[in-house]
Amino acid sequence: MGSLGDWPEPVVCVQSLSESGELVIPGQYIKPQSERPSFCLKEMNIPVIDMTGLITSREETMKQISEACREWGFFQLVNHGVGIELVDSVREIWREFFHEPMEVKQKYANTPKTYEGYGSRLGVEKGAILDWSDYYYLNYLPLCRTKWPAHPPSLRELMEEYTNEILKLGAVLLKVFSMNLGLKEDALQKAFGGKEVGACLRANFYPKCPQPDLTLGLSSHSDPGGMTFLLPDEQVFGLQIRKDNQWVAIRPARHAIIVNIGDQLQVLSNSIYKSVEHRVVANPDKQRLSLAYFYNPKNDILIQPISELITLKTPALYPPMTFEEYRRFIRTKGPRGKFQVESLKSQR
């Protein structure tokens, strides 16, 4: 297995494979039979929550959010306060980036040390089965030398505006989550590190795939961070979540932001809130783009179940671990998220 400084094998851009015209995908993208997408999906959708209800019908909306966090781990927010024009613009500016010439994108090629930049694989296990997608990973907080693409030229300005809106939305939701757990409204924000939270973006590009029944755009995983704000592709569906041991295909509401609980919130809530397995299927006819914004705890803060949630009947399910320790493990193993959390924590 490679170190976090190197990829174990040459990285191939999936977009170039898609545009080659080949009708058979390379073997390293073919999933084992048990992991291939099933099209016998449960007919339901994740909760859709109107954020204006926090003003007009607060108690009912708080209840809706609580049930979504406990039972689904996912929900869609409408009337979320982020401008519709801004939402549309950030999606389109990243679509422009992924259609820049390859020599432009390769200037930002990433490494597994931070993942920041343009890439096409996750994890450093040699011979791993890969996903049918490319991405751009962008660190924003803590403040650092962010690897901004120079083209399109308005990308940085738009993303800084969008980031500020997402950070405000994240702070509001952490208050709601805290109160729904019976805690002080600032409990989860403090557990995240106060104002010193982490924020990063992964822009996901899923090229057309000639054999979508054999692969996945993104393997089944749970998100390792705090919570995720996803701008889905409203024209091309692909996100699926596991509910009651069945896959549910998500149908995005117009201009909605999809929110999901990450592993760190599951730990802090002592598994009251669920970090749920999800995946992305490939499409044979259309490209797809989505933007996942991760609102994370401070890197070096210890994450463990909040003491007020621990009782004789509900003992702590997780020992302390910093987010950086956890993330380093995930970066080594790839998008397996919570599947290896229990074994990892039992070693401590």
TrEMBL record:
Protein source organism: Lactuca sativa
GO MF annotation: an example: oxidoreductase activity, acting on paired donors, with incorporation or reduction of molecular oxygen
Protein name: Fe2OG dioxygenase domain-containing protein
Sequence similarity: Belongs to the iron/ascorbate-dependent oxidoreductase family.
InterPro entries: DIOX_N, IPNS-like_FE2OG_OXY, IPNS-like_sf, Oxoglu/Fe-dep_dioxygenase_dom, Plant_2OG-oxidoreductases
Alphabetical list of Pfam families matching this protein: 2OG-FeII_Oxy, DIOX_N
Highest taxon above the source species: Eukaryota
Boundaries of every Fe2OG dioxygenase domain copy: 196-297
Keyword annotations: Iron, Metal-binding, Oxidoreductase
